[in-house]
Amino acid sequence: MPAPVIVAAAVIGALTLLRAYAAFHVPLTADEAYYWTWSLHPAFGYTDHPPMVAWLIGLGRSLGAGAGFVRLPFVLCEAIAAIAVGRAAMLLADDARAGAIAALLFALIPQTKLAIGEALPDGPYMAAWALALWGAVAVDRRPTVRNAVGLGLALVAVVLSRTFGWALAAGILAWSLERDRRRRVWPPLVLSAAIVAAGYLPFIVWNATHGWENFAFSFHTRQHFGVGPARFADISTVRFVLYAALLAAVTWFVALRKPPRLTLVAWTALPLPAALLAFSFVTSTESYWIIGPAASVALGAGIMLARAAAGWRRAVITLLAAGTAYATAAALFMTLPEFTQAGIFFRYPQLRAPLASGVYVFAPLAATVRATAARDRDAAILTDRYETAAELRWYGVDSRIVVALPQQRQWMRWHAGLPVPQHALLVTFAAPLDADPPLAAAVAAAFDHVKPLPEITLSYAGKREDVYYMVQLDGASANARTAIPSL
Question: Which H helix or E strand runs over 112?
Answer without folding.
Answer: none
